[in-house]
Amino acid sequence: MFGTCFWRVEIQILRNLNVLVLNASRDVSRPDEIAKRLKRVRKVYRLPQHYDISTLVTSSYDWAITIEVSRRVDKRGAGNRARRPLHRCETV
């Protein structure tokens, strides 16, 4: 590969929506070009409600970035969940 190649990764957290936004930019300019050309990729991930976005932890390696999110702590407890009656959904 010619020239230098770099990646820039930005992580944006939208707590009220439980959403994680990844913005990645990569240098795609040719060696003979003076100006930098960037290729941008944007991915939006909406986490299920049983995950807590405020517990996000990232790790960076030479070859990868890992993103971990923990489950929410159920404040009601397991006993309350078993005692709640089940209701049938209405069908159309």
From TrEMBL:
Protein name (Swiss-Prot/TrEMBL): Uncharacterized protein
Biological source species: Gongylonema pulchrum
